Amino acid sequence: MSAAYIVALIAAVGLFLFGLAQRARRRKELAAWAATQGFTFSHNPNRFFDERFPGFRCLRRGHSRTAYHISEGTRNGRPVIAFDYRYVVGHGKSRSVCRLSAVILQSRIALKPLYIRPEGIFDKLTEFAGIDDIDFESAEFSRAFYVKSRDRRWAYDVLHPRTMTLLLEMPRFSIEFDSTHVIVWKAPRFAPDRFEAAMAVAEGLLDRLPDYLIRSQSTEEQEEG
Question: pTM for this one?
């Protein structure tokens, strides 16, 4: 057995053990964080989590999708879930594992799809091709965030000046609305203390929904019921 092979083997074992230690540390930190929130915590992987929230695009990417380090509870009367998530893109030699962390908060009223994320360089380039997102009166907000919704009026109603100020002042996350929940997430995984900030963003969005919008959505929900 050559010296180079032995060195490579030792390095591989070292990296494996380091990975185990890092995973154990994160599990311990997230379990402690969940306890401070009064949430339940499970580190067991859930391979059907994406089926629970089929409306969120960020949970439908790739294959071999798995949620883990799952904390569940309530926050100011709203059910909340915080978790780590991974999925696989490609196969064989082109296979890569992608990770993110997220918080999902349940709304008290019906919602409509809405997608918000930090704007990137590629978004600037697509503007020249006519692929524009929704722009707002706040030039600062429009430069900072990419916004999409099939219902532009809904986007304008949700993202009024107070809400735009909140998003500009908070750490930058990607956000999606489905019909009943809002997810706040970021890739790759974020530190345990960022879960608190993500929950604050989700709460801030829902708490700032205008009264007229709440009445309108509540009326629509009753009529559909």
Answer: 0.86
**Number of domains observed in the structure of the chain:** 1
pLDDT digits (tens, 9 = 90+) for 147-196: 999 999 999 999 999 999 999 999 999 999 999 999 999 998 988 889 99
Give the range of the structural domain holding residue 93, as residue numbers without chain letter: 39-224
Q: Is 34 a domain residue?
A: no
Return the SS3 of 138.
coil
Number of Cβ within a 10 Å radius of residue 53: 19
Note whether residue 8 is domain-resident.
no
DSSP designation for 47: T
Instruction: Give dist(CA 149, CA 152) in Å, integer.
Output: 6
Structural element, H or E, at residue 87: strand 78-89
- The length of the chain, given as a count of residues: 225
37 CB-side CA count, 13 A: 25
Inside any domain, residue 33: no
